[in-house]
Amino acid sequence: MKIQIHFFTALVGSVAIYFVTSGNLLASSLFFTSSFLIDADHALDYVLIYKRIDVLRMLKGHFYKDRIYVFLHSAEIPIIALLVWPGMYSAVFAAGYLLHLAMDVAEYPFRNPLLTYFLSYRLAVGFSKQKLCSKSDNVIF
Ligand SMILES: [Zn+2]
User: Fold this and answer.
1) pTM of the shown model
2) For 68-117, what is each residue's pLDDT tens digit?
3) Is 140 a residue whose pLDDT tops 70?
4) Which residues surround ligand 1, an ion (CB under 5 A)?
5) Does 137 have pLDDT greater than 60?
6) Can you give the chain as a three-state secondary structure string?
């Protein structure tokens, strides 16, 4: 998913959360953070794959060769947050997080779209791009 689309949906969602929670800025910020900043893990992937930093290529995201890590694109994170820290803030955090993951699932050609967004599944297949993707093109998560 393009970063601009994630930014826009995170912004709209966080404004909605702000009004629904009667001006709770922390809840609004949590939603924005969890639905947008997940993509920061692409920068880590780029460094793990190429052993260098290239901000422009990192932002484009079309750089995956044979492994896809994206550690933050893991459904375990919001599930654990809800279990360990139940309440409104974890619910808002999980909602933003799952919105981001759902948008990615809807877009990319994975062999198993739902399981791909679990770190445990990616770990089980060795983070193999070939095992995760049904096509080898332009996966950017
Ligand atoms: Zn993403």
Assistant:
1) 0.87
2) 999 999 999 999 999 999 999 999 999 999 999 999 998 887 899 899 99
3) no
4) 39, 104, 141
5) no
6) CCHHHHHHHHHHHHHHHHHHCCCCHHHHHHHHHHHHHHHHHHHHHHHHHHCCCCHHHHHHCCCCCCECCCCCCCCHHHHHHHHHCCCHHHHHHHHHHHHHHHHHHHHCCECCHHHHCCHHHHHHCCCEHHHHECCCCCCCC
What number of residues does the chain have? 141
CA 7 to ligand 1 centroid distance, Å: 11
What tokens appear for 109 in the block? Answer: 């050609």
Rounded to the nearest angstrom, the distance between the alpha carbon of 8 and the centre of ligand 1 is 13
